[in-house]
Amino acid sequence: MIDIKNVSMNFRLANDRILSLKEYVIKRVSNKLTYKHFHALSDVSFSIQKGEVIGIIGNNGAGKSTLLKIISGILTPTKGNVKVSGNIAPMLELGAGFDMDLTARENIFLNGAILGYSKQYLTEKFSEIVDFSELNDFLDVPIRNFSSGMIMRLAFSIATLVDPDILIVDEILSVGDAKFQKKSAKRMFELMSGGTTVIMVSHSIEQIRQMCSRVIWLEKGSIRMIGNSIEVCKAYLSEQTDAPSSSVSNNSYTENLYSPTQITKIDNQYFIVDCWHHRVIYNPNISDSISSWTILCDNVHTPHSIASDGELLILDDTGNNAVQVYKKKLQTYEFSQTIRNIGYQPNKIIYDKDKELFYGISASSQQLFVLKNNNGEVEIDNVVRLDYLKNSYVRSISLIESKLYFVSGPGEILVANTEDMSFNLINKYPVPFELQGMNDLIKIDSYYYISVYQDGSGNIAPKLVRTKDLNLLGVNYEDLYDKLQMKGVPYNFSQIEDRVYVTEIDSYSSIRSFKLVEDEIYDIQVHYNIGAADDTSIHRRGYS
Amino acid sequence: MKIKAIHLLSKYNFLLAQLVQRDFKTRYRRSILGILWSLLNPLLIMVVQYLVFSTLFRFDIPNYSVYLLSGIVIFNYMTEATSQSMTCIIQNASLINKVYVPKFIYPFSRVLSSGVNFLFSLLALYLVIIATGMSITYSHIAMLFAIACLFLFICGISFMLSSIMVFFRDTQFLYSIIITIWTYLTPIFYPESILPKYMLYILKFNPMYHFIRFIRFIILSGGIPDLKAWVFCLLFALVSFVLGVLVFNKTQEKFILYL
Hints:
The complex is a heterodimer. Chain A contains ten helices and 33 strands. By secondary structure, chain A is an alpha+beta fold. In chain A, strand 6 (166-170), helix 6 and strand 7 form a beta-alpha-beta unit. The two termini of chain A are 32 Å apart.
C-alpha cells in the first residue's frame, strides 16, 4: 500500500529566514547569505500493508512531520522512492480548508473537493456526514458562527465518513464533548477494522499503544526501531524516563495485579487475567502471593478473558486484535496459535459446552466470532457482524440458558439465538442510562448480576446490581456495590465451586468473593486487595 | 506535458469549480446589492473619471465614455486577478501543508473567479455601448481572441507573482507601486495622441496597451485590427504564460519550506 525505500530529505535553509526582497538583496550584496544543510530524514525504508494502523513516535524534530508530508505527497524526497496506492485523507487541523463565510453545507463540498472527492460521491455521502456531525439544524449557517467544537466535528466527519484508503492523523484531536469523543473514537475503530490504513502521529504514547498495531520510532531522521507497538513504546518510554524509573525496584509489578479482568478455574489451576499488566498468570491455590504464580504469557496486549474446553486455552489479545491459543502439556501450557481477522478489540471469550464451540466478541467492530477445536487446532468457524449492536462498544457476552446475551452497549441487553447459529435477535431489554456501560452479566440462582463501568455518556460510574427480571431493570434493581465493599470498578463475575468471584479494576484492583445461599449473600472475602496501582504497575501499563 | 495538464484539469475541475464558487460567494455574501456590485463597480469608476477627464479630452476622443470604460474594465481584470493570485499560496499555507493538491490550482482559480467578475464588467460595458447608440458588428467576435490572450497573459503574471510572493513577502508592496506606474503608462483615460514620440515607443512594450488597443479598435471603429495587433497580443500572452509556468514549476517544490 505504502512503500518507502531509502528516502532521504535534505533542506537547504538560510541561517536567517529571509522573507523580504530588500533583506535578500542587502545580504546578497554584502555576502552575508549563508546556508546550512539540514538532514530531516536519512535513508528511511519501510512498507505499510493495507489495513495496518501505524504510529509514528519520536521527539520533536525527529522527522515525523516530514515523513507524513512525504507520504502524502506534499514534499518530494531528495533521494529515494515513495510508492503510495489509494487516496489519502488527512485530518485537517481546526478550520484548515474551511471558509468561515460559507455555510456548513457549502463547506462540506469545498472541503470534500480539496480532499479529492467527486461531486457525485459527496452528494451520496452528504446526509451521512451531516448526521454524524450532528449539525442538522445549522446546515445553512455560515460557520463563522460555529463554536470551535462544532467546526471540529464537521472536519472530523468529512475526513472520516468518506472512507479514505489512507487516513493521516497528526496529533489526535479531542473532538467535541465527551459524547462526540466517544463516537469519534468508535468511528476511528470502525475505519481501522474496515481496512483503512491509518498513520498517526501523537505525543501521547498511551494513545499510540492502544490504537496502533505497529509503531515506527524516529530519532534524528532515522528509524531507531520499528515493530510491535508494545515493544517499541516500551523501549521508547524506558529511554524517556531513564533516570526516574531506574530508582524503582525492578519488576515489582509482578507482585501485584492491575485491573484483573477475570479469575477462572481451569482443571486444577486458578487463572487470573491481569489486564493492565498485559499478562495472564496461574496457580493451583488462591491464597499464595501473586509473585509466586506462574506466568502463562506476558507478551499480550490488554487481555480481558480466557476460556477453555479442557484441552486448549483461548485468550483474547485485545490490543493486538487477535486471540492466542495455548495447549496443555502435562502440568504446563504451551503456546500454539495466534488467530487474527476476528474483528477489532476482541474483549471476551466464552466456551459453550453443549456445542463444543468458543464464542468471542470484538468490542469495537461488533463482530461475533465462533472458534472450533479441530483435533487440537483452532479454526475460525464464523465471524459475523451483528447489525443490531449498532456501533456500540460491547464489552461482554454471556451464555445463559443456551442463549447469548450481549451486555449493554447499544442501550439494551440483547439476546441472540444460538440454536441454529444464526444469532438472530430474539429478545431485548432496555437499560436505564446509569447502567448502560456494562461489563458483565451472569445469572446465579434466581438473580441476574450486572457489573457496570460507565453511564450512557461514557463517564465512569461503577455499579454492581442484581435483579430477578431483566424487564424490570428500568424500574427497579438492588444495588450491591456498598454491601460488597467495592472501591473500584466491578468487572467480571465467575462461579468457581461454591463461591462467586468478582474482579475489581481501574482505580482499585482487587478480587472479591462471596457465597450465595438462597439468594442471600454470605461470607464476603477479599483475596487480593491491591488497591491503587503503584509506579511500576503504571509504567508497565504504559503511561508516561 | 499538455496531456498531463488536461488530465489534471479534468481530475480537479470539481475542486476548481468549488474554489471559484467560494471566491464568488464570499465576495458578496454580506452585501445587499450582491452580484450587482460587479456591474456597478466599473460603471461608478467610469462616471467619476468621466466627470473629471471628459473636459480635458472631450474634443480628442469620440465616444469618450466607451473609450474610458473599455480601458477600465480590461485593466481592472488584470490588476484584480494578479493581486488576488499573488497572495493565494501564502493564504492557503495550512492546506498546502496538509493536502496534496496541484498548487497551480490556487492562482488559477483566482484568475478564473476574477474572470467571472470581468464578464459582469463586460456586460456593463455592453450596456454603455448600447446606451450610447453604437452599433455592434460581427467584428466583435474577434474580441474573444483578445480576451483569450489577456487570460493567458494574466495567468502567467499570476503564477509568477504567487510564487515570488512565497519567498519575498514585500513583493506585494512593490507590486502595488508597479501597478500605479503601470496604470499611468497605459492609455486608459487619456488618448495616446497626447504622448510625446519617445513615450509611444515605450508604449509598444506595454502588453496591456496592446490588449486594450485591440479591443478598443473593435468596439470604437467596428473593424478588425490589423495582423500586427494580433501577433503582438498572442506574443505577449505566450511569453508571459510560458515564463509564469516555468517560474512556478521550478519553485513550487520549495514553497512548503517557506510557508
